[in-house]
Amino acid sequence: MKSHFLLATCLFFAVSQSFGGYYIEFKVTSSQGVNGKMKAWYQDGNTRSQMIMDANPGRPGMPGMVNMSTLHLQSQPDKSFMLNDEAKTYTEIAKTDRKENEEDDKFEITVIGSETVNGYACTHVTLKGKSAKGGLIHWWVSKDVKGYTELKKMKTRHLNSNSTYKALEEKGVEGFPVRIKMGGRMEMQMDLVKAEQMDIPPSKFSLDGLTKQEGMPMLPGGLDVQKLQNMSPAERQKFMEQMQKQYGKQQE
Of the candidates 241, 248, 217, 210, which has an alpha carbon nearest to the alpha carbon of residue 67? Predict the structure, then answer.
């Protein structure tokens, strides 16, 4: 009887502690003071990500603040949705709009070595873009991130690229990035600060209550989100540098 009771107890806790989703959070810093964070929620093939960047630290609400949310739904794999939570609107983006930029997501992988980063045992690699617009990016990936095989399926601009993970696997490298570093005149770095398993509320992956908006939302500097998404890593880096210079001058 005791053994049956212990077995039932173990099964109860195993079931009660089983979560179907994941939440991650990265701290984003730069050498020019454009800082923020990236959050993402993933469950059942659905991903919601949010990028919050502030080019004017200490002056909330001033020009330079960027708050973008993107939704990828398993039921609509040929689309993504840009969300404006404050205005209760969304913009639909067809996946085919980015076909001409697929080469920008392909990289040559170089393994640097083993390092410990953010408390994780990592493999440090560099990703060199194969396209003319591609730049050099450093990734530190770790198999110690719980659920990393599922996390690799998240649809986020900075973390997801099937061709990238395939290239890593061909080099014998497995894991999920716990640090991403992009060079250039303004160095950008993303550091994993949270990786948790949890059940994500269905509302995170719903368009209910939002009104469809035609056209693309605008970012500081007059750039629309569509163009930002279509940029190569090197082009996005240059844009962030220009944005920081523009709003840095306004702050002086």
Answer: 217
237 vs 134: CA distance, rounded Å: 11
Residue closest to 185 by CA, chosen among 229, 244, 116, 134: 244
pTM over 0.90: no
Asked whether 78 and 94 are in contact (CB, 8 A), the reply is yes
Of the candidates 210, 105, 247, 209, the residue with the CA atom closest to the CA atom of residue 167: 105
* SS3 letters across 106-139: CEEEEEEEEEEECCEEEEEEEEEECCCCCCEEEE
In sequence order, the 6+-apart residues with CB closer than 8 A to the CB of 9 are none
Q: How confident is the model at residue 94 (pLDDT cuts 50, 70, 90)?
A: confident
Cβ(47)–Cβ(156) below 8 Å: yes
Pick the CATH number of 20-251 from 2.50.20.10, 2.40.340.10, 3.40.50.1360, 2.120.10.30: 2.50.20.10
Query: What confidence tens digit (pLDDT) does each residue in 155-184 have?
Result: 877 776 677 888 899 999 999 999 999 876
Instruction: Return the amino acid letter for 232.
Output: S
- Residue 161: both structure tokens together: 């690229």
Beta bridge partners of 28: 36, 190
Q: Are 48 and 205 in contact (CB under 8 A)?
A: yes
Strands (E), 35-85: 35-43, 46-54, 65-72, 79-84
Contact 187, 30 (CB under 8 A): yes
Strands 46-54, 223-224: pairing kind: unpaired
